[in-house]
Amino acid sequence: xxxxxxxxxxxxxxxxxxxxxxxxxxxxxxxxxxxxxxxxxxxxxxxxxxxxxxxxxxxxxxxxxxxxxxxxxxxxxxxxxxxxxxxxxxxxxxxxxxxxxxxxxxxxxxxxxxxxxxxxxxxxxxxxxxxxxxxxxxxxxxxxxxxxxxxxxxxxxxxxxxxxxxxxxxxxxxxxxxxxxxxxxxxxxxxxxxxxxxxxxxxxxxxxxxxxxxxxxxxxxxxxxxxxxxxxxxxxxxxxxxxxxxxxxxxxxxxxxxxxxxxxxxxxxxxxxxxxxxxxxxxxxxxxxxxxxxxxxxxxxxxxxxxxxxxxxxxxxxxxxxxxxxxxxxxxxxxxxxxxxxxxxxxxxxxxxxxxxxxxxxxxxxxxxxxxxxxxxxxxxxxxxxx
Length: 387
Description:
Blueprint: E1 20-25, H1 35-42, H2 50-61, H3 69-86, E2 93-97, H4 104-113, E3 118-123, H5 130-150, E4 161-164, H6 172-185, E5 194-200, H7 204-210, H8 217-236, E6 242-247, H9 262-271, E7 276-280, H10 289-306, E8 309-312, H11 320-341, E9 369-370, E10 373-374
Parallel strand pairs: 1-2, 1-3, 3-4, 5-6, 5-7, 7-8
Antiparallel strand pairs: 9-10
């Protein structure tokens, strides 16, 4: 027997077949000079004049012209790397944005140069909708095409395989992180305080399209809200009354968006005699602009004007339970890929709440509409990218 035959067989990585992870996010300006170009990227093709963008830019200039999302993504990437190392998983984690540097193509270029040929993407949006899922997948497709062109590949030939983790609104780590945040925020409030969940509003046409292949955007949030409120009530030892509200509405007044607005809802609660509220931003994974301006600035000002006591619950950010859950999702997606590659049926995803898991590879027609108009762009990580 040769000495080589006595060597132990290497244990396959729990992330095989993936050789890199991409953290995919929205992006944000790094300084005052970036704000208007960034907003032009965000609104490209919508015909919004610079005069209107200048009004939105003031939200960023209120905080020195830099979005907090970039630092938070760096922190989340480092936390993911740390949890992967703790589990003995040695893969690089690259970071790319849809709307600002580093762009998605920058992240894919770095992964490809490092030798990666199959990458799994983790999006910093927990919910399925056009803006929260398909728009990222459209960006993945165009970024893969751009990188292929750079590398001199033939048209239609892509430089690597890119899969993604399923929308994770009902992942136990995400939900538990929100439960912990609500309980912490409630510590100095009376039992009859009201729990006000908040997420980003979307046009009602986008809401309708999000339900074509599973629970809709609002239904996903209602499921998370009900689960978080029920768990928080057990921990707090009293009943918890709650409502789901929305923030960050944009677009013309004639276009219907999901309601109620959080500020309008606070006014209604005040009329009902509610004196204290916990504002829980379950629609966001970190404290980016919609949280620090729309909630920490505008909603808190509304509450103060009404004479209400308001405490804003933290986002899940880099909480250990959330980061562990994200790595669990990466491992789950890798196991699914291995099963499918072998022609086997993947294991059922682990979820909490009452709704089923959304699929990892999106079905044709899933979340296709933006403000009621078909984008017409192919999307990666789909059963049929052109459907």
